[in-house]
Amino acid sequence: MNMTPETPDGTPPSDTRLARGQRALAAIDGQAGQNVIDALDDIAPDFATYLFEFPFGDIYSRPGLSLRDRELATVAMLAAMGTAQPQLKVHLEAALNVGLSKDEITEVLMQTAVYAGFPAALNGLFAAKEIFAHHPGTAP
């Protein structure tokens, strides 16, 4: 007899979308990710659950790409959007947390100029400069 309690859908509590998402967010973003979740607590706590479950519990937890590769792609996409500076900064921290170097991040942001334009690349580079100045081991 299985004595492990299960959720209503039959999955063990340690392997729900929410639990996977919480583990992934902690590994990727550390405190920066938790700060985003905490900031939603008084306005949209359900949205915080959705953030845990879909992007981190479903997508980031998939096999096929490393967290490092996923963060490199995320930084490139957020920089190319040009309208997501707060999220870009969180993911720049995450990129450093999962092993990307300052030089690799700078190169992908420079590459943004080719496909998204110089303003997007400049915004990304200035966001990175701000994050690098406060991240251990990356300050000039």
Q: Could you characterize what this model shows?
A:
This protein is an all-alpha fold and 140 residues long. It has two domains: 12-62, no CATH class; 65-140, AhpD-like (Up-down Bundle), CATH 1.20.1290. It is 71% helix and 0% strand. It is built from six helices and no strands. It has helices spanning 17-40, 45-59, 67-81, 85-97, 102-116, 118-134. Helix 1 (17-40) packs across helix 4 (85-97) and helix 3 (67-81) packs across helix 5 (102-116). It is globular and about 45 Å long. Residues 1-6 have low confidence and may be disordered.
> What is the CATH first-level class name of the largest domain?
Mainly Alpha
**Could you give me the name of the CATH homologous superfamily of the largest domain?**
AhpD-like
Which fold name corresponds to the CATH topology of the largest domain?
A: AhpD-like
Q: In percent, how much strand structure appears in the residues?
A: under 5%
| Structural class by sheet pairing and helices | mainly alpha
Assign a percent range to the helix content: over 70%
What is the helix tally? Answer: 6
Major sheet characteristics? none
Whole-number mean pLDDT: 87
Low-confidence stretches: 1-6
Measured between the Cα atoms of the first and last residue, the distance is: 59 Å
Element string (H = helix, E = strand): HHHHHH
Radius of gyration (Å)? 17 Å
Domain module count: 2
